[in-house]
Amino acid sequence: MKKQIKRGMGKILGGALVGIANGLFGGGGGMLAVPLLRANGLETRKAHATAIAVILPASVVSGLVYLSKGFAPAQALVPTALGVMLGGFFGAKLLGVLPDRLVNFLFACLMVIAGARMLF
Asked: Which domain holds residue 66?
């Protein structure tokens, strides 16, 4: 019983860290969520799908705060949102057919590229 409580608290803490990263950096929470979910035993596809599902509400809340504070220009919202939705649709379709090893490799490449771009 204590082990289950400890695991549940770890998931809540991990989720809070993902939400903080998402709100603070305007995204990126999914990059933290996937490894956390994998560490908790979810297989690759389920970890990626779950990360997207939990990031959606966090992104909506963060986006509303950004818009209300004037941090996000409303004129960029619609075209960017349309592109994100279109990309998300096709990405979800690809997740269903790509091998797990390739998904992991592509995800790792994305993380390395994003990190390098932030540094340089």
From this structure: 2-119
